[in-house]
Amino acid sequence: MAACSQFLCATAPRASLVVRNGAAASSSSNAAAVKLNIGSTAASSSCGAFSQSDLFSTRLVSSSSNPTQLGPLNSRQQQQLVITPRCKISVGDVVPPVGLKDQDGRLVNLDKFKGKPLVLYFYPADESPSCTKEACAFRDSYEKFKKSGAEVVGVSGDSPESHKAFKKKYRLPFTLLSDEGNKLRKDWGIPTDFFGALAGRQTYVIDKDGKVQLIFNNQFEPDKHIVETLKIIQA
């Protein structure tokens, strides 16, 4: 299975990271890839922490039109970084078999959704303001996904009981899966935010053959996950 590169997006602290067809794009239209060498230093951001090791290769998406080799980051550069570590699941990969319990405690394998596009969105926690906003946005656009033949599934580390209450309270028409211990998100390399204190918010669009078509990461603008995934689903 191919591993995707890391991208440090030197845009606004709340910038989106979109990976399509093996490339990353920031919100800046004139972004250019710049090789980044931070040695053994640790780069921090508003969304998380990153420690360099031999296993990591990094790229900086910058507004600079003249890519150059960089040294250690200064504090301002660190504050502007949105960091996505090496992904074990990347665009173009076929998703491996995954089995998680749904809101009713039933084991659900992702193979169940083969034959139709799947929007698999990982969110930090039931009932948090941003996660509730995202879930309700997916709910309100659910018919658009269904009309395009797609299914939506949410995943967090909450228990099936928590998911059941969350689903009922907000009348969510889609399945919620319980990734207890956040094992799946760790296996897939989904980044954490706020120096590891907050689980990341990352969405995958998987085609009918089980192949990843889009990876979208944005912690602070949950509604953008719906916008970006619909662009792919409705294309």
UniProtKB/TrEMBL annotation:
Catalytic activity: a hydroperoxide + [thioredoxin]-dithiol = an alcohol + [thioredoxin]-disulfide + H2O
Keywords: Antioxidant, Disulfide bond, Oxidoreductase, Peroxidase, Redox-active center
Record InterPro entries: AhpC/TSA, Peroxiredoxin_BCP/PrxQ, Thioredoxin-like_sf, Thioredoxin_domain
Presence of the UniProt keyword tRNA-binding in the record: no
Annotated transmembrane regions: none
First-tier enzyme category under EC: oxidoreductase
SUPFAM superfamilies per the UniProt record, alphabetical: Thioredoxin-like
Domain Thioredoxin residues, every copy: 89-235
EC number: 1.11.1.24
PROSITE patterns, A to Z: THIOREDOXIN_2
A Pfam family annotated for this UniProt entry: AhpC-TSA
The keyword Oxidoreductase is annotated on this UniProt entry: yes
Subcellular location: Plastid, Chloroplast thylakoid lumen
Protein family membership: Belongs to the peroxiredoxin family. BCP/PrxQ subfamily.
UniProt xrefs under PANTHER family: AHPC_TSA FAMILY PROTEIN, THIOREDOXIN-DEPENDENT PEROXIDE REDUCTASE
Name by which UniProt lists this protein: thioredoxin-dependent peroxiredoxin
